[in-house]
Known about the structure:
Layout: E1 4-16, E2 21-22, H1 29-38, E3 61-69, E4 75-86, H2 93-112, E5 116-119, H3 138-144, H4 148-151, E6 163-168, H5 173-190, E7 199-200, E8 203-204, H6 210-215, E9 222-226, E10 240-242, E11 252-254, H7 264-278, H8 291-300, H9 305-321, H10 326-340, H11 345-354
Parallel strand pairs: 9-10
Antiparallel strand pairs: 1-2, 1-4, 1-5, 1-6, 3-4, 6-11, 7-8, 9-11
Helix pairs in contact: 2-7, 5-9, 7-9, 7-10, 9-10
Amino acid sequence: MHAFRYGIEHELAILRTDGSFADHTDLAFDDLQAVVDALPEDPGDYPDLRVGDQGIKRKRWYVEGFERFDESGGLVRCDPKGLEIRTRIHGTVEEAVAAVWADSALMDAELARRGLVSTAIGFNPLRSEYAIVPPLNAWEEGHRMGSPEERTAYLHMSTYGPDLNLSCERLDAAGLVDVARKLTHYSPWLVPLSFSSPFRDGAAWGGLSARTHLRTGQRPAVMVFLGDGDPQVDADPSLTQLSRLPAEVGRIEFKAFDACPDVVLYGELLSLLTGLVLDETLAGRRTTPDAIAHQHVARVGLADDDVHRGTGQLLDAAEKALTGRDADQTRLDALRERWSARHCPAVDMLAAYEAGEQVAGLRRS
């Protein structure tokens, strides 16, 4: 049986205790950093987790945002989007999911002491755009043009989603690139299982994933991390990236799912991705995401018969490839029940909204 390793990066938005949505317009970086400062630091995390140039990512929790610099490259401020939880690398899906649960509980306790609450939603329900004010200076322009992802980094200020990470010991660099191109091709039929962004600009927008509708085509669906000397793929958005620390070499990072309120769904999706990595029957390949296909599914989701059929075919392929992996099969069975019901988190969000309940700071007028 092929050995896999797993990690989860979980982005969370912030609410105040009255249920109102909090973002960079009314929430200070220091308010969220105080939450992170109160959480424990574990030196054992660092072989697996990248700290980053500014030292903001020193723990399993950190403030996610958009950094601004002076003309010399010194950090001036960071406009906060929310908080991110990231796990160490784990040998099983169960361990990765349990780590997110445990770290969420610790974080939520610290948030509560400050009159704040975390929530998982795929898109800022109040504002679709993050305004870069003041405009980028010359140093920032050079810094942000360094890669397709840096160039479009402002887009992530409106979106929330996980990076679901897995690696497989059998894959060399060529195999990783092939898997990345496969998952990129099939992404439009994977992402509807996670949709959780039915609101934008203060109301329901008519679709299920404002995040997918905005970002796909400009941001990667999948990225793989290669070692020194491995040939990189020239693509916009990127398909490959040079690993920044040894633990990243061989990582497959699926980036196109919406943030999920129930992290159990992340485990089910990781098992689906595991099956698709192992699969040897699916022929589709793309180097960059199909923006038009993603925008279509962002509106219709699994309610569309063609989309539903395409997702079902991926579940079938994964099921065959997961033979002998009983825990993964059990999670895939649970995911298939969601698929059969044509369910995603956005369905529940819209139902609550239509019933007059407050959802991520919104209440139907």
